[in-house]
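User: Hi! Is it possible to get a structure for several chains at once, not just one? Here's what I have:
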Amino acid sequence: MHIQDGVLSPAVCAVTGAISLGAVAYSVHQLKQSVGDRTIPLTGMMAALVFAGQMVNFPIGAPVSGHLLGGVLAAAVVGPWAGCVAMTLVLFVQWALFSDGGLLSLGANVLHMAVLGSWGGHAVRMLVQRFVGDSHKGIVIGSVVAAWTSVMAAAALFCLEFRLSVPPGEIDFSKVFTLMVSFHSLIGLGEALITGAAISFVLNHRPELICRMGTLARPDHGNEEQTGKSAHPPIAFTRTLGAGLVIALAIAAFLSPFASEYADGLEAVLGKLGGEFHLTASVPGLFADYDKVPVPIAAWEKIAVSIAGIGGTLSVFTLAWLLSKALPIAPTKLSEAAGE
Amino acid sequence: MCHRWPPLAKLFAAVTMILAATCVPITHGPLVGIVACVIFFAHTLARIPLAYVARRMLFFWPPLFLMAISLPLSQAGQAGWLLFVTILVRGTLSFSTALWLVNVMPFDQLLATLRRLRVPDVLLAILSLMYRFLFVLWDELDRMRTARSARLFRKPSLWETWRSATHLVGRLLIRALDRADRIHGAMLARGWDGRSRWIDPRQEDRP
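Assistant: Yes, the chains can be modeled jointly so their relative placement is included. Here is the combined structure:
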């Protein structure tokens, strides 16, 4: 999931770095404003927790195993601002301690996992919760959907960044993007499963730890009773906008193979127009690309991506529904009985 | 001897080397060679054992290789080989530079340097606390894993592994947040007022 140095071009790294810097600065600003002195140990602990949680292996096949990414989980516990800061620090420490990821591509990684994961994930979760309800079921479904959409949005963004990093014409991007998107839909599935199950576990045992609707940060001691009381806060315009953006990006992930092909076709057409100045020549030019590739294979590839997309979406929703059904709604107050 | 350089110089050197490694076009063989030599020279100056670097590379290469090989594979081996080599070489060079920085720059020195570069105090306070808790939580996770394997008398199925792994994450989260509460209480008891105070490591070093 980490982008290493050398994959993206320095210019793309600079732009993504600037965007991430702004987003993180805004998060820090919000963090300073909204909460008291408890934020600092809490956010530090959350960052350490995400880091440690990523060490827990989820086996898939014999050599392959997945792990938690944590953006949505962090936002669910400490709110989007602190969650974004925590994820940023996780990514920074992973570079500074283990040289995992990269320095120049830190901006891109922060954008994908911290900003999209925490801000976007939180926005999507709140949007889903508005429709499903601010209950156990709503929170689990919301976080499953949010986890999956945020990973797919990151994939779409990566495709765009990668496209801008590589000089055009060197390779056929649509095939690369097909590969990327199918790969990320698997990662997203894993992330959705893990996040949903972990949040459901916490909701069963300590429901007060998960941020409810209308809260952007964990409350300080003393006013914990206030959380969850405001069942229907007014829809925040920016949050809806953010959720819409993330969902649009996720959808764009599945369209990216088509989009890049369309762009290639467009370039070809423009080239023809520029060179020969007649429109009649450009009409066959539009189909020139397809002559090289046998049509059934090209069509099959598109169908495969679409099926992967629709199937992935359906399976995530089924998963969310099953998770909310399978796990007991009534919390077993074991932890409290144990005096933890 | 790189260890004794001023921290800012070390950071600057690393950033320059990474920039050079990612900007040099791969087709200019001699230039890439020069960058590689400089990085190698830095490693020998810092006396980082080659076996250690090789061991880290072993863990670093597979993901990078997978990412890079997907390019020519998706083109049916017809194109993208230059891109494949570019990503591999640039990735390796910048990874070894980062490895060098990790080895010559202790984390608290990095924190102090970041502070001199005017990174906000809140961020640094969170960062230093995170660094402190990280190892505590790793130990906690280790104990929970030991407990889990002590209670298992057979090879668990995939479903059971996933279930117990999610419980592990969830339980770790609950314990971590409880610990954060206790730590906050302890900090309050020691006069924490939301501001962080730093000891300048340069003054600390002075006899």
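The mean pLDDT of chain A is 71. The longest strand of chain A covers residues 58-59.

User: Great, thank you!
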